Amino acid sequence: MELSKGAKKAISMLEEAGFEAFAVGGCVRDFLLGKKPTDFDITTSAKPEETKAVFKNEHVIETGIKHGTVTVLMAGEPLEITTFRIDKNYSDNRRPKEVEFTKNLREDLSRRDFTVNALAFNEKTGVVDLFGGVFDLEHGIIRAVGNPEKRFNEDALRIMRALRFASVLGFEIEEKTAAAIRENAALLKKISAERVFSELSKLLCGNSAAKIIFEHPAPFFEVIPELSVLKGFDQHHFRHNKDAFEHSLTVLENVPPEKNLRLSALFHDIAKPLCQSFDESGTAHYYGHAQKSAEIAETVLKRLKADSETIKTVSELIRHHEDRFEPTKKAVKRLLGKTSPEFFENLLCLMEADEMGKKEEFRLDKSVFSKFRRLAAEIIEKKECFSLKNLEISGTDLISAGFEPGPEMGKILENLLEKVIEGEIQNEKEALLSFAKGTAL
Predict the structure, then answer these.
(1) Can you give the pLDDT at residue 437?
(2) Which contacts (CB < 8 Å, 24+ apart) does range 290-294 have?
C-alpha cells in the first residue's frame, strides 16, 4: 500500500517518538479493492496530548480531543489522528458518552463497524487484519465486527452504512448482520434525518441499490414508511406484471446513478395505492397519481431535511413523468422552454426507465426517446429559439417601441415566442417588433 506523503510522514514521526501508528479504515479497504485512497485516517497508541507534542511544529486542530482525535495538517493534507480507544456507554444509539484510551490495537479495531473497515496498515507491519476483513473483501461480504446486535445498538446509523457499502461495493450482507439489521431497523428513528438522508443518497447511487432495497426493505420502510404500502400492491393492469414496489425498484435500476434521478424513481409511483380506481372490466387506473406522488415525495424529502434544490427537482420530475408529447421539434421546444435541457434529459431518463418496469410487449419503443434526444440536441446546437431568453426581443425593446410596461408586455412576449416556435415569424428583432405592433393595433 502506498501511503500519501502526509500520512507516511505522520506515521514515521509517531514511530520515531516511540508510539505505534497505522493508517486505518477506509483508506486500507479502498487500497485492497484496487482503488486509490482519497484520504487517510491514522490510529495511534499516543494519547492526544502526546500526539500534540509530536506535532508541536505542525498546524494542529483539536477536532475531537475528548474522544482522542486531533487533526494535523501535514504536507497540505489534513489527517485525523485518533488514539487507540475503547468506546463506552452508548446512550443515544449514535455516539459513546465516554471513551477509554488503550495501548492495544486489537481493542481499537474491535470497536469498529464492519470487518472491511477494521483493517490497519503501516510500512513496517503491512496489513493488520484481526477480524477477517481481507477474506470478506475478497468474497464480497459486509459483516459486522463481533456481535452485530451490539454494533447496531451502539450506533444505529451503521444500519444505513451497511446497506450503503453493500450497494456501492456490490457486496452481500452476511446472514447474522442482515438479521440484526431487520431486528434493529426501528432504531433509525433515533438518528438525525440529515445523517440518514446523507447515507440514503450515497446508497441510492450504488449499482446494487435496487437489489439491496428489495432484499432489506425494513430499514427503508422505517425511514420512509410511505414506501411500505407499495410492497405487495397489485397494480391490476395488463401492462404490469410486477407489484408497485418491484416496479419502482426496476425503474430505479434503469435510471443513471444520480441522486435526484434515483430519488425520483423511488418515489414516482408512491401515491398509486391512494389513487387506484377500477373500470367495468376490472382494470385499475391511477388518475392524478403523478401529482399526488410529487406531493408525497416533497413531504418525505422535507422530513429528511433534503436541500431545497433536490426537493424541487425531484418533485417536478415526478409531477411530469406521466406527461405525453409528440417527438416533434415544436413539442420539444415547448418543453425545453418550460424547463431546461438538463431537466428535459432527466425527464426522458425517468420516462424511459418507467417503460422498462412494464411488460416488454407494452413498452414504448426506445427509438422514441432517441428521437427526442436528437431533436433536443439539434435545437441546442443550432441555437434555435425555445425560450424568452432566446427571443431576439425583450421588454426593454418593446418599451422603446412605445409599449406600456405592465402585465400585458409579458403576454406579448409569450405570444411572440409561440409564433416563433410555430414557425409563423422569424426570430429577428424587426420582424418581432413589426408583428407585436400589428397585433397591438
Answers:
(1) 85
(2) 290/318, 290/319, 290/320, 290/321, 290/322, 291/319, 293/267, 293/268, 293/269, 293/318, 294/318, 294/319
As to burial, measured by CB atoms within 10 angstroms (0-12 exposed, 13-18 middle, 19+ buried), residue 411 is exposed
Distance CA(8)–CA(150), nearest Å, equals 34
Q: What are phi and psi of 10, to 5 degrees?
A: -65, -45
DSSP code string of 69-119: EEEEEETTEEEEEEE-EEEEEE-SSSSEEEEEE-S-HHHHHHTSSBGGGSE
357-363: list long-range contacts, CB under 8 Å, 24+ apart: 357/240, 357/242, 357/247, 357/248, 357/250, 357/251, 357/254, 358/239, 358/240, 358/247, 359/238, 359/239, 359/240, 359/241, 362/238, 362/239
Span between the terminal Cα atoms of the chain, in Å: 79
Model confidence at 406, in pLDDT bands (50, 70, 90)? confident
pTM: predicted TM-score of the whole model, two decimal places: 0.91
User: Cβ of 282: how many Cβ atoms within 10 Å?
Assistant: 8
Give the tens place of pLDDT for each residue, 14-60.
999 999 999 999 999 999 999 999 899 999 999 999 999 999 999 99
Domains in the chain with CATH codes: 5-135 (3.30.460.10), 140-223 (1.10.110.30), 224-381 (1.10.3210), 395-440 (no CATH)
Contact indicator for 1, 96 with CB cutoff of 8 Å? no
Q: Of the candidates 196, 304, 212, which has an alpha carbon nearest to the alpha carbon of residue 252?
A: 212
Q: pLDDT of 378-400, one tens digit each?
A: 999 999 999 999 999 999 999 99
Half-sphere exposure of 210 (CA within 13 A, CB side): 19
Nearest to 112 by CA among 162, 62, 39, 72: 162
